[in-house]
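Most newcomers find our protein records easier to grasp once they have seen one. Sequence and backbone structure share a record, each on its own labelled line. Nothing more is needed to start thinking about how sequence determines fold. As an example, a complete record with its sequence and its structure tokens follows.
=====
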Amino acid sequence: MPTTTADPHELVRRGRDYYDKFLRAKLEPAHHGEFLYLDVETGEYELDADEVAAMERATANHPDSVFYILRVGYPASVYIGASPGRGPA
């Protein structure tokens, strides 16, 4: 059973805070564009250019965890629809 709060807003807040405080400076220069799966309870994470590979390792190593997911150096891990900063086609 996951130990992280079920509130998705709290998960995002905790994940962003942890990333900003402990990981941003370390990861952004060398891992720009890679996917990060962060366990907000432990601070452990998986990082990979392939999102599925990162997810599979994260869930294999922490099967009961809930993860904060982001793409290093981007405001969101994925975009649906128009690219950010671009209007509708």
